[in-house]
Design goal:
The complex is a heterodimer of chains A (354) and B (394). By secondary structure, chain A is an alpha/beta fold. In chain A, 27% of the residues lie in helices and 21% in strands. Chain A has 10 helices and 12 strands. Chain B is an all-alpha fold and 394 residues long. Chain B starts with 13 loop residues before the first helix and ends with a helix. Classes of the chains: A alpha/beta (354), B mainly alpha (394). Chain B: One of its GO terms (cellular component) is plasma membrane.
């Protein structure tokens, strides 16, 4: 049922014209986010996660960037929309949180000013109303003595507090979709947990869809409902959080999980190899050059089509094609469902997540 | 309006100024409008209805006339008050912080005091002191505490002891060859210096910031054309241009200020452009755009305030250049000889240097101190407004 989704991204392709030719950062990516759900885009640095989320509200500078595809928000195509209409959506209906709160705030202004900025751009509110709302939000995101701190400058806040302020900035317009781009990466682990909990509570309270970008699978495990695994601008695998963590189908996902000691991972030092050159991606599966299971079929043609391996879990890997032997890349005895996607539900392993 | 306030841009209360760019004017803008409007009306009245020889305030019986330069000067003073002084008062926390940073630099504090004296003297002096009158009888009076051979002055105002004429408090810095009081002339010169400082800074800042940010944000061929135009401005022989204008229209002080400041913004524009480009890459610009701000709101709300703090030093250091230039032109005899500037005073006294050096020395020292003060001030402002720069020095 694609039409009642809050956000649907179809065949999103973002390229940048550079001196060395065209750089494809995001290459035909699909995903969707529903109200009240948290979708995580996972992948290592440079895999196009951030560019994908910034393409949604066309924050990418064009030129040199070029965004193609469709991004439907509540049924309206954001990519075809004139800039002025899009501005009404930015900050008002779709809000962003950034990785580094330090840099995302203008040191010339008080945090109060910055929180109310979005509100005053979109709504005709008086200074007093805006202030009341901002203080209320600051209180809600856990800043003690909010009404006094309204007039403080960003440098007077700690990193965690700044991220809380950033969240308040994002929420001030009552957005329906929150795009959080690695919001916890710059924070230490204890603060990370607090911020994640806060985001979780706020999501329920504001009934938002959350698109969460991260490279940290530990974070994903805590908050995600569904996961989209990206590599080199392509989707490798997608599915419910339990499916992915329980039986990751794509070798890349498996290796990502292997890097996590708390999930029983044993790989120390990460996945060998580096991301392919985005100017000239390899034929076939983008991950093939680093994949220990790669064979001839992996290195020819396009990125493999997505094949449903369990309800809601789809993987882009040739080994799951009909007639191939998926056990090559499986390190357990899991049997995938039929290649045509007709689920025959292999008992306990394929849990539906929502 | 925001881009026009001189000297200490960063201390403008951007919180108040850049609110969403709608029609809700801040108290500062309302004050500016309310005070600038009578000035504009007076200017129009002076221009259209008052004869060239009639004093502007003839209608209230005052024998005081206002030149174009005076109007411009009052306008920039209003700008400075509403967008510089008042915000500092409105925002005491930030003011205290700047002051704390600023006062660590002792020479700068002294400089600020000196510039304060020059400023107040320039504003108040002409109002309370009569213009120096020519009195040939008391020409060449020595400054107080000094003495000259009593044949130098025509008549000695002070005591003549052992054939030497002693200076008096009546003329604390002596008198010129025409018997004008040097102290009074220096005070009148303060007005001129402050006029040059304020008006040029306003013009250079306005044109430079507008040009720089527009160029940075337009990009492409617009940027190309604007920056090549800036190159022309930078390489333009301003002095020759000024000589040409001088021969055609005569060399008023207003003409000097306008010509030199209209050819001085090239460096500022270039700097603002590069700074704007680097600031527009900052995350908070993206953050603002993501909040739905239009390009205008982003530029006015985020780019200009951030650029402003870093061009203050440059603007402060431009002022002594102008003051020196004016003095040089006056010394060469191609300045506005009707204007009692320090340069004119020095020029007038140069032929008497051998027996009446105070005529040159007094304004010369004042000029020197003022220029030095501006340089110290620029340095200290850089440190106070831009802590990173200071950290690099440490």
């Amino acid at each position: 049922m694609p039409s009642d989704q809050l956000l649907e991204v179809e065949d999103l392709t973002t390229t940048f014209g550079t001196d060395d030719g065209t750089l494809t950062a995001v290459d035909g990516v699909d995903f969707d986010v529903d109200t009240g759900e948290t979708v995580c885009i996972v992948g290592e640095s440079g895999s196009g996660k951030t560019v994908a989320t910034e393409s949604i509200t066309r924050i990418i500078k064009t030129p040199p960037g070029e965004i193609e595809g469709t991004v439907r928000y509540k049924g309206r195509d954001l990519l075809a929309m004139p800039e002025s209409e899009l501005r009404d959506i930015r900050g008002n209906e779709i809000a962003h949180i950034f990785q580094n709160p330090q840099e995302a705030m203008n040191h010339c202004y008080t945090v109060g000013w910055q929180i109310t900025e979005a509100l005053q751009i979109h709504q005709d509110v008086s200074d007093e109303e805006a202030r009341a709302k901002a203080v209320d939000l600051m209180d809600r995101v856990g800043i003690a003595n909010a009404s006094a701190r309204f007039d403080d400058y960003p440098h007077e806040f700690s990193g965690g507090q700044k991220q809380r302020v950033m969240i308040a900035m994002a929420l001030v317009g009552d957005p329906d979709l929150l795009i959080a781009d690695e919001p916890t990466t710059a924070l230490d682990v204890t603060v990370q947990a607090q911020i994640l909990r806060l985001l979780d509570e706020l999501q329920e309270e504001f009934d938002m869809g959350v698109l969460f970008v991260t490279h940290d699978l530990g974070v994903v495990a805590e908050i995600a409902d569904r996961i989209v695994v990206m590599y080199a601008g392509k989707v490798m695998e997608r599915g419910g959080v339990l499916d992915i963590f329980d039986h990751p189908a794509h070798p890349y996902t498996q290796q990502l999980l292997e890097c996590l000691p708390e999930f029983g991972g044993t790989t120390v030092g990460g996945i060998p190899g580096t991301l392919p050159d985005p100017h000239d991606p390899p034929d076939g599966c983008r991950f093939a050059p680093r994949c220990e299971y790669a064979e001839g079929a992996c290195r020819a043609g396009e990125q493999p089509e997505e094949i449903e391996v369990s309800p809601g879990q789809r993987v882009s890997c040739v080994h799951y094609r009909p007639g191939m032997d998926p056990s090559v890349v499986r390190n357990d005895n899991f049997e995938p469902v039929g290649g045509d996607g007709a689920a025959d539900g292999e008992g306990g392993v394929s849990r539906a997540d929502d | 309006m925001a881009t026009e306030s001189p000297e200490q841009f960063d201390q403008v209360d951007w919180n108040d100024l850049s609110r969403s760019g709608r029609f809700d004017l801040s108290i500062n803008s309302i004050g500016m409008l309310v005070t600038a409007l009578p000035l504009a009306l007076l200017g129009v009245y002076d221009w259209r209805f008052v004869g060239d020889r009639t004093a502007t305030f003839e209608f209230v019986g005052l024998d005081r006339t206002l030149e174009t330069v005076d109007f411009l000067f009052i306008f920039t003073l209003l700008l400075a008050f509403w967008y510089l002084v008042l915000p500092l008062y409105q925002n005491p926390r930030r003011t205290r912080y700047y002051w704390k940073e600023f006062k660590r630099n002792r020479p700068a504090v002294v400089s600020l005091g000196w510039l304060g004296i020059v400023f107040v003297g320039g504003i108040v002096g002409p109002l309370v002191m009569n213009a120096p009158q020519q009195e040939l009888l008391i020409a060449y009076q020595p400054p107080v505490f000094t003495s000259v051979v009593d044949t130098t002055p025509a008549t000695c105002v002070g005591e003549v002891i052992n054939g030497r004429c002693h200076g008096t408090w009546q003329h604390p810095l002596g008198t010129t060859n025409a018997g004008r009081d040097v102290f009074t002339m220096i005070v009148y010169g303060m007005t001129i210096s402050m006029q040059i400082a304020f008006i040029t800074t306003t013009i250079v800042a306005t044109v430079g910031i507008t040009f720089g940010t527009l160029s940075a944000y337009a990009g492409g061929w617009v940027d190309e054309i604007m920056m090549r135009f800036t190159d022309i401005i930078l390489s333009f022989p301003t002095f020759l241009m000024f000589l040409l204008i001088l021969y055609i229209y005569g060399a008023g002080l207003g003409m000097f200020i306008v010509v030199f400041s209209l050819f001085a913004w090239g460096g500022t524009a270039r700097y603002v452009r590069s700074k704007s480009l680097s600031i527009s890459e900052e995350e908070f610009i993206k953050s603002s755009r993501i909040s739905g701000a239009s390009t205008y709101q982003v530029i006015r709300g985020h780019v200009v305030p951030n650029v402003a703090s870093s061009i203050i030093t440059q603007l402060t250091l431009l002022i002594p250049g102008f003051l020196l230039y004016e003095a040089q032109l006056a010394f060469l005899g191609i300045g506005d000889s009707t204007v009692p500037s320090w340069g004119q005073l020095i020029a007038a006294g140069r032929s008497d240097l051998s027996f009446a050096p105070w005529i040159v020395l007094a304004p010369g020292i004042v000029l020197f101190l003022t220029i030095l003060a501006f340089n110290f001030l620029g340095d200290a402002l850089l440190d106070a407004l831009n802590p990173e720069a200071e950290a690099e020095n440490a």
